[in-house]
Amino acid sequence: MTAGPPPESEAGDGRHRQSAGVGRQREVPTLMEQMGGVQGVVASTIPVAVFVVANVIAGLQPALISAIAAGVLVAIWRIARKQPLQPAVSGLFGVGIAAFIAYRTGEARGFYLPGLLLSAVGLLAFLVSVLVRWPLAGVIWHGINGDGQSWRKDPRMLRAYTLASLLWAAVFAARVVVQGWLYNADQETLLGIARLAMGYPLFGVALLGTIWAVRRARRSPSPA
């Protein structure tokens, strides 16, 4: 006996579930798109890598020129590929500020000072957000994806984003401790290497931890 078409309610539910599934699958790509995709994320580390190598080989002044030139080339490359303009401009601006500080101080370690200060600000922001029960991981995630902030009414999601925010705080704390120690010790080359190693690799770990916590919360049963 041939089964007839599903009732309208079931079909509607199916379409709703499919639409919701697509929406959830779009969350991660949307977040990455804000940074120019995977290629854009990798490309943003190029000026720092160029500075580290050039500083070891040729000294501070050539390293500053090389880093700025690399930042300009990365921005042009992003624009040519029709990637979002904001990451290109922000990346070039960040390189320019870092180079200016290093030039004014006459020390290569000054190039890494803005990143170190931003890590300290990030650590404080995520910790405060947890204390006031507005975990920043959730605020940023849903803000970027345009989902609103209604997730705070769900205890499961609030708990998940609290854990995710603590993970992000740990990442920033690690950067502050390690890179701060190298900065004070005037270990310029090791500081540059630490900046690269503790940049997007740790960012990726925190992002994966956020995704895992949220998906686990969604699968857990609703509280009675």
TrEMBL record:
The answer to whether keyword Membrane applies is yes
| Record key words, sorted | Membrane, Transmembrane, Transmembrane helix
Q: Where are the transmembrane segments?
A: 36-57, 63-80, 87-105, 111-136, 157-178, 190-214
- Region Disordered: start and end of each range? 1-25
Fetch the InterPro entries from UniProt: UCP010219 (IPR016566)
What is the protein name stated in its UniProt record?
Answer: DUF3159 domain-containing protein
